[in-house]
Amino acid sequence: MSNNFVTSVQTTALKKAINYLNKDYQKALPKMLGMVDRFDTNNAFASQRAMFRSIIQNPKSNWYKLIENIWDDIDEGIRKTFFENFFIKATVIGHQRHKELQEKHNCNMPWTILLDPTSACNLKCVGCWAADYGNKLSLGYETINSIIEQGKSLGTYMFIYSGGEPLIRKKDIIRLCEAHPDCMFLAFTNGTLIDEEFAADMLRVKNFVPAISIEGFEEATDSRRGQGTYQKVVAAMNVLRQNKLGFGVSCCYTSQNTEDIGSEAFFDKMIELGAKFAWFFTYIPVGVDASPELIATAQQREFMYQQVRKFRKTKPLFTMDFWNDGEYVNGCIAGGRCYLHINANGDIEPCAFIHYSDSNIYHNTILQALQAPMFMQYRAHQPFNSNLLMPCPLLDNPQALASMVHNTNAHSTDLAKNEDVDSLCAKCQAPAAAWRPIADRIWQSSQNKL
């Protein structure tokens, strides 16, 4: 029996289950999980299935409350599209396709592609490299459409926009949602351009979700993003919530705002405003003129590690910390292992924070980039540390990034000023050294509990 036939049968069955799920999720969830158990013959999602089973067996848990909130707060059509595109396409079908192509081409295959429609932004945030890039560079509609088509041929159905401010390209983003109804789209956005008209477009296409950047409460957000930004963000969240549109928040913690972002009051406020997920990033000093003093201290990073794990047990909010959660994803997810990044100049980079490349979308296909030296270096060296709480080849293992760039002759893709990789990595030597003993202590303690 061919893999294509098996996948088709699975897809049909799961779509029927999703239709039932929308009508009566309390009865349908256990049945749907049983179906996934039968499909997951190689146990690729064993840990995820076990976790989800524990959730649906405990209706009093915060995670079950999140499920209830999703059914109460989000439009039925959007829920259905999310499950079909994210769960069936990006996860079930995508996983099978990636497995086949990884074996065939002996390279990484990305679960998602992150791309910058434009370098332009309507804000000028302190410490953000995009603030120095200006508004001159953009990926045309046809180029973005080609990236999506190439991604789909590789089994990728999840696409994330960054920038710049991607919603400067609202019309093209909605047009791309219409052109690819089988894909899921997300954008990291400052939120200030979200209005009723755009909310109506989101309701119509159903396959776009914003992750709104916020730096903490009003004082912290406005100090980095400009006076009045926090209130504009809150207004955007109100528009989304009132239109039953799902959204989350994207939070960069720095030496200046970690205590705010990691506080229970902040988590509660985001939940109150309607956020269903929160993605946490730690500040990386990318760019010649970046501010290393904004790097969170080792103690602040440990604080975030502890707070996120504590609130996962008590708050109805899906959270992920892209540095401190390395233990759950076997370290670094960049280099095409889970994702890659294409900047507004078309440079195909291993990570949004790694501005070095040996491929460009105007000269290379995505598959060619995945097989090129820079991405193959990532594949050869991941994970970069046996302690998965030190996943990053820049912030945690700066010698690893410098070595890969030198080994491949990758060039700086910084759109403002070329940055020497040794100078960049030097900024991270002291923070990496400070984090190492704390990471080792936490890691050893967690391993002893297994």
Describe what is shown at a glance.
The chain has about 450 residues and is an alpha/beta fold. The protein is built from 17 helices and 11 strands. It has helices spanning about 5-25, 25-40, 45-55, 60-75, 75-105, 140-155, 170-180, 195-205, 220-225, 230-240, 260, 265-275, 300-310, 365-370, 375-380, 400-410, 420-450; strands spanning about 110-115, 160, 185-190, 210-215, 250-255, 275-280, 320, 340, 350, 355, 410.
Q: What's the layout of helices and strands?
A:
Layout: H1 3-23, H2 25-39, H3 46-56, H4 62-73, H5 76-105, E1 112-115, H6 141-153, E2 158-161, H7 170-179, E3 184-189, H8 196-205, E4 208-213, H9 218-225, H10 229-242, E5 248-253, H11 258-261, H12 264-273, E6 277-282, H13 298-312, E7 318-321, E8 339-342, E9 348-349, E10 356-357, H14 366-371, H15 373-381, H16 398-408, E11 411-412, H17 421-448
Structure report:
This protein has 450 residues and is an alpha/beta fold. It folds into two domains: 3-74, no CATH class; 107-450, Aldolase class I (TIM Barrel, Alpha-Beta Barrel), CATH 3.20.20.70. 50% of the residues lie in helices and 10% in strands. It contains 17 helices and eleven strands. It has helices spanning 3-23, 25-39, 46-56, 62-73, 76-105, 141-153, 170-179, 196-205, 218-225, 229-242, 258-261, 264-273, 298-312, 366-371, 373-381, 398-408, 421-448, and strands at 112-115, 158-161, 184-189, 208-213, 248-253, 277-282, 318-321, 339-342, 348-349, 356-357, 411-412. A nine-stranded mixed β-sheet has the order 7-6-5-4-3-2-1-8-9. The chain has a two-stranded antiparallel ribbon with strand order 10-11. Helix 1 packs antiparallel against helix 2 and helix 1 runs antiparallel to helix 5. It is globular and about 55 Å long. The model has no long low-confidence stretch (mean pLDDT 91).
